Amino acid sequence: MNLINYKIKLLTFAALGSGIFLNFAQSQVTTQPKTETSKQSVKKIPTNLKWSERMLLSEMTRFPESWMLDFSKSPKWTYPAAIVLDGAEILYEKTGKKEYYDYVSSFGEKLVNEDGTIKSYELDKYNIDLLNSGNVLLYLYQKEKKEKYLKALQTLRSQIDGQPRTSEGGFWHKKIYPHQMWLDGLYMGQPFYAHYTKDFTKGADAEKAYDDIVNQFDLIQKHLVDKKTGLLYHAWDESKEQAWANKETGLSPNFWGRAMGWYGMAMVDVLDYLPKNHPGRAKLISYIKSYTDAIIKVQDKKSGLWYQVLDKPLEKGNYEEATASSMFVYTIIKSVNNGYLPKFYKTYAQKGYDGIIKNLITTDENGVVNLNKCCAVAGLGGKPYRDGSYEYYVKEQIRSNDAKGTGPFILASLEFEKTK
Fold first, then answer.
1. Residues 340, 346, 351, 354: what is their CA dihedral angle, to the nearest 10 degrees?
2. pTM for the full model?
3. Which fold is adopted by the domain 46-418?
């Protein structure tokens, strides 16, 4: 009988202990979420910051590692991240906030090996897109003087020497796209080429390089400008062999917004490095003027935005596109700030900038800023074959927070913040 009573006491104590433990565990589960969802919690991104910082911090929240920008699943040497990081560099210099520098620096640390080789980069593909991220290394080398960055930069510069060219010296977009100049390629290659030349090349070699850079723009103006509208076609095939190429002119059939956006950014960014006394400066500034006059004619009068296919706003499926709109705004306001365009052009930049904020920007509860209606990608040729038709451009994937839009938005915001 005593043994039975003893067992009952043990079971009672065990049950009581379990209850205590259960109550303790439940108290942890129920109180923890209350802390996380408390209305007292501070927003991750303060809304009183300027748009440039708000968007950069939003990108840093979405993509905690800088190599993740543009939705990369693993570290890969691609061009979109560099555009956001250009903005991060300027913001670091402006604010002194170390987290911005660390975000830039981590890109170089992750993508460039100690021996100077670049992860996933293949020189023999002669893909001009892959020169753009060299701009990040030019910045980091200036700051840190790491030998691995110098070696990587020299490798990227050697690509320019071997890049296949048209009969007049224009860079092919890629080795797999023979005889073709794309507007995209001017932004991908020329600012890096000019910046590298300014930092590392002297004398006659520098003059030759600057002449080569200006010639790329001269060839675009010669072959890709539509005489009627002043707009520029996406690409030109010197051989006229591509199915997308006009058999008489070699031109692709449509005016794609972001292609022209790349071209505008290329011109204003190259002028940062082209010597003041170089005769090509005046030509580039004249190209910016005719370019801007053409794009403001197709700017939507109500929203201030630009369409995916620039000259066909009313056709089925067309839409006001964020990356091109951000690029155009950046090009115009930077041109005004630097004296390349008269001040009255700022009106068009302001209308576009306001239109982006009103129509394409949304903000989450935690303060994270989103840029919506970005065309994810568009090109010509390849597999499956992209024919450059109107239907092709408007059916490509649309997504939010593409670095090809958020980067130019940050840069445009910084230019507006200069003027206030």
1. 100
2. 0.90
3. Glycosyltransferase (1.50.10)
